[in-house]
């Protein structure tokens, strides 16, 4: 046995590369007062957690792809993609969800809930639009009332891991912990365990897929990136007018598009929430807006999709105790411009 260092890098269109910016909100407000009481003691937010022993039993006898554990770093050597890594090549596996049928569009928002999410909830209520929120576990624990509000409003709640780290840089055990703590936080608040998850930065390969599948989770990517994260961090380089222009092109192409859309947006910042409110009407004129689970006809929660015949979620004052790969060419939107560079350094024992 000896250790061999692999350096893998790729240059890909920005539309198929997720943002590489920080998940930290500068001068974030304190969480509002809540009467919600969690029965579980959760890990520290933003830190890779440790899995419970019983969770690790779920992957004990599972065949998992022998992909390396990557270290996020700098690399200049072009790499190959033997493990269907979406970050490197936009590779999709057969169970990845990333689009809607023609004529439908799924609005998806990552990284929340945040202090700015209620503004978006208010607007969605006004226009009667249902969307999918990919929530970070630490944010759910910080804002349980916002989480419950989104759920009760009929939006789909899905997972975005506990700490928002690159999933291919995690061990199998850490992947289990990231997903199961995220699941547990949402279930404590709503009474429902989500099935759908979005890997932070779109960072997923067959190893991550195998671990997630063993836990009963389904990955969701996207085929249209609004680049709202760039607008938030660099409004002069990525002005709102540029983003609105792209969205307008997507809407104008609705009649001739082969597939519908799943767009990537965020409700972590005030600027991205305001942008979301501004661009929703553009897409609403051209597409039927529908949550991503609904447009793919999949179960959103392990208990089922409909909440009508299920127990009510806990009140705020209480709580409940090798795949077939397909081309990614269809994922690149016509409005994509620029290049993104993603590099990871992988160390594997051979």
UniProtKB/TrEMBL annotation:
Keywords, alphabetical: Hydrolase, Metal-binding, Signal
One of the Pfam families matching this protein, by short name: Polysacc_deac_1
Q: Which InterPro entries match?
A: Glyco_hydro/deAcase_b/a-brl, NODB_dom, Polysacc_deacetylase_ArnD
Q: Which GO terms describe its molecular function?
A: chitin deacetylase activity; metal ion binding
Q: What cellular component terms from Gene Ontology apply here?
A: membrane
* SUPFAM superfamilies attached to this UniProt entry: Glycoside hydrolase/deacetylase (SSF88713)
According to the UniProt entry, which residue ranges have a biased composition of type Low complexity? 317-326
Q: What is this protein called?
A: NodB homology domain-containing protein
Give the species this sequence originates from: Thamnidium elegans
């Amino acid at each position: 046995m000896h250790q061999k260092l692999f350096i893998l890098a790729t240059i890909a269109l920005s539309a198929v590369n997720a943002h590489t910016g920080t998940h930290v909100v500068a001068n974030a407000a304190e969480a509002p007062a809540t009467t919600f009481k969690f029965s579980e003691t959760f890990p520290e937010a933003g830190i890779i957690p440790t899995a419970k022993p019983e969770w690790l039993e779920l992957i004990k006898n599972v065949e998992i792809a022998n992909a390396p554990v990557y270290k996020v770093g700098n690399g200049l050597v072009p790499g190959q993609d033997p493990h269907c890594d979406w970050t490197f090549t936009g590779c999709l596996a057969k169970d990845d969800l990333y689009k809607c049928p023609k004529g439908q569009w799924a609005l998806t928002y990552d990284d929340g809930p945040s202090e700015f999410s209620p503004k978006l909830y208010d607007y969605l209520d006004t226009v009667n639009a249902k969307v999918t929120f990919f929530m970070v576990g630490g944010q759910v624990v910080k804002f349980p009332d916002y989480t419950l509000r989104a759920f009760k409003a009929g939006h789909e709640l899905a997972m975005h891991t506990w700490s928002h780290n690159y999933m291919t840089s995690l061990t199998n055990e850490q992947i289990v912990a990231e997903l199961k703590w995220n699941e547990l936080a949402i279930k404590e608040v709503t009474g429902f365990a989500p099935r759908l998850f979005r890997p932070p930065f779109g960072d997923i390969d067959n190893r991550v897929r195998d671990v997630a599948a063993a836990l009963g989770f389904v990955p969701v990517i996207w085929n249209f990136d609004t680049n709202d994260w760039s607008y938030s961090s660099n409004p002069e380089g990525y002005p709102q007018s540029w983003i609105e222009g792209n969205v307008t092109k997507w809407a104008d192409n609705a009649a001739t598009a082969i597939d519908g859309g799943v767009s990537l947006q965020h409700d972590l910042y005030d600027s991205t929430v305001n942008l979301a409110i501004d661009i929703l009407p553009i897409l609403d004129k051209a597409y039927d807006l529908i949550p991503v689970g609904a447009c793919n006809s999949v179960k959103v929660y392990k208990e089922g999709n409909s909440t009508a015949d299920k127990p009510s979620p806990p009140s705020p004052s209480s709580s409940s105790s090798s795949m077939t790969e397909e081309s990614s060419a269809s994922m690149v939107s016509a409005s994509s411009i620029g290049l993104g560079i993603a590099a990871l350094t992988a160390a594997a024992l051979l």
